[in-house]
Amino acid sequence: MRFSAFDFDVVTSPPPDDRGDTAVTTPLHPLRVLSTLGVMGALEAQQTALERGLGTTLAVAFAPTKVLLDRLDAGETPDVVILTAEAIAALDHQGRLAPGSAPLAGSLVGIAQAPGGARPDIGSAAALVATLRAARSIAYSGAGASGLFFAALIERLGIAAEINAKATIIPQGLTGALVARGETQYAIQQISELKLVDGIDIIGPLPADTQTPTIFSAAPLAGTAQADTAAALIRLLTGPEMVAAFARAGLEPIG
Q1: Model confidence over 184-204: pLDDT tens digits?
Q2: Which residue of 7, 84, 154, 202 has the fewest C-beta atoms within 10 A of its own C-beta?
């Protein structure tokens, strides 16, 4: 399944009947997860296997980390969160997490365009600046980790006003969908999120000297009634099958 620019909340389907011998005791309710968009491709691909291993269904909502933090602040109470490492650390400092958090994967911000065009030079910071200045239009997210990073990057490079004058800044979602629809020339986002969109060409990651990988981590919420199942999910998320799934999704596994 592929997603448009604003399809970001997904509730998973029921698990198959054959749950195997590794299933934990089935809880009364699905395990509720709030997850960053950055790992959506890997989680979607492994949904059935994860549910089989847990012996229960997963109810997963995907959105940018900032949006998920707002939902938590508004009183939403999932069992597990998958967010940027910085957000996990902040929640832990506030006493809102139970022990057992784990890093899952790293992600780089990349740039994509429509297929068939000549690939621009983004091999250095200077080349990236020239490419961005020459672009007709650019899309990035206003709430996602990649969008916040890119906004700070163009500010640091001294081209923020020039780039933002021709940028489409979506509230949240998949920027690659705008390129696929022909609405912008380039899309900026985590490579794992760009890979979720058909009909685009991922040029590559932004230059190494302009970015630091985003680390996504998982953690159980303090007070969850499904603590054992939440811990079991995190063990599965750091296991070998998910390591391979993260790699296929364009992430750098940490497991």
Answers
A1: 999 999 999 999 999 999 999
A2: 7
Distance between CA atoms of 112 and 120, rounded to whole angstroms?
A: 10
Q: How far apart, in whole angstroms, are the C-alpha atoms of residue 209 and residue 156? A: 12
pLDDT digits (tens, 9 = 90+) for 94-104: 999 999 999 99
Strand order in the sheet with 167-170: 167-170, 138-141, 186-190, 109-113, 201-205
**Cα 155 to the chain's mean position, in Å?**
23
Q: Which of 9-13, 135-139, 208-212 has the highest mean pLDDT?
A: 135-139
Sequence-separated (6 or more) residues with CB below 8 Å from residue 201: 112, 113, 114, 115, 116, 117, 119
User: Where are the chain's structural domains?
Assistant: 31-107+214-253, 109-210
pTM more than 0.90: no
Both tokens of 1, joined, read 């399944």
Angle at 139 between CA 12 and CA 242, to 5 degrees: 35
Report residue 179 as tokens.
């390129």
- Let me know if 141 is exposed, middle or buried by CB neighbors in 10 A (0-12, 13-18, 19+): buried
Tens of pLDDT, residues 105-123: 999 999 999 999 899 999 9
Output the average pLDDT for the chain: 90
**Is beta strand 201-205 parallel, antiparallel or unpaired with respect to 58-63?**
unpaired
Measured between alpha carbons, how far is 51 from 48 in angstroms, rounded to an integer? 5
**CATH architecture, domain 109-210:** 3-Layer(aba) Sandwich (3.40)
Do 31-107+214-253 and 109-210 have matching folds? yes
| 215 exposure class (CB count in 10 Å sphere: 0-12, 13-18, 19+) | middle
